[in-house]
Amino acid sequence: MSDAPILQLNNIESSYGPVMAIRGVSLSVKEGSIVTVLGANGAGKTTILKTISGIIDPQKGSVTFQGEPIHNHRPDWIVRRGIGHVPEGREVFPLLSVHDNLMMGAYTRTDRDEVARDLETVYDYFPILKERAKQDAGQLSGGQQQMLAISRALMARPKIMLLDEPSLGLSPRLTQEIFSIIRRINRERGTTILLVEQNANVALHTADYGYVLEVGRIVMEDSCERLLQHQDIREFYLGQKDSGVRGTRRWKKKKTWR
Ligand code: ATP
């Protein structure tokens, strides 16, 4: 992992009409790392990812990728810079085959031999996709569609992958399986990962660094190792009641425990 940030958000504010979804969000993702943003339903996690990938234009602030400002650019331009977005709900093409969905991920690439090699790599990560290559993607289970959505993003050879709640709707076993592949992708391909999750347990055991988002604001950040030890995280996000002192919501004012 390098110390240089590959992605930085600085004081971002994004809205849907009159609804302000995120306010003053700043975060930094080191190259080669896995970073997570934790938050409850409606906290603004999806909005952060949509702002990075250009689906939403921020009203304020900046997004910088590899030192270059990318906010106010179109989503297709941002994808070509090396940012892959795996949206919540997967959004695979249900009437296309698994294979054709994967090839859609590689549509901007001209290096055919490398594309063929990457196809074998994603089939190695998720062998079930190879077995189902000719079937319509709409016939896959939820977990298999999640695998396909991640694999389709990988086919573009992203430098960073934005993952929106990959555990949503999956059994604990399948969640573990998908997260172990996410770790492999990070380790073996060096792909940086920005992961937003409600499932704090799996996210904190996967990522290196974490941010906690509440009602559109970052209220806490630290290494995942330290977040896992923090009493408020244990009580409010991991559902673990420690004996003795109750959680005090000490992060109401943003703090970094160092
Ligand atoms: P979830 O886990 O439910 O997806 P989230 O943390 O990803 O939640 P966002 O989807 O980013 O949260 O939503 C942040 C806020 O913006 C919420 O108050 C939500 O109601 C609002 N919001 C999201 N999408 C829209 C939209 N298309 N129009 C209006 N308001 C929206």
Q: Helical region count?
A: 10
Q: Give the biggest beta sheet.
A: 7 strands, mixed
The tally of structural domains comes to 1
Which fold name corresponds to the CATH topology? Rossmann fold
Instruction: Please identify the structural class as seen in this structure.
Output: alpha/beta
Give the SSE order as H and E letters.
EEEHEEHEHHHHEHEHEEHHE
Bound molecules: adenosine-5'-triphosphate
Biggest sheet, spatial arrangement of strands: 6-7-8-3-9-10-11
Helicity range: 25-40%
Indicate the proportion of strand residues: 25-35%
CATH class: Alpha Beta
Termini, distance in Å?
20 Å
Write down how many β-strands occur, each being a DSSP E stretch of 2 or more residues. Answer: 11
Uncertain residue ranges: 243-248
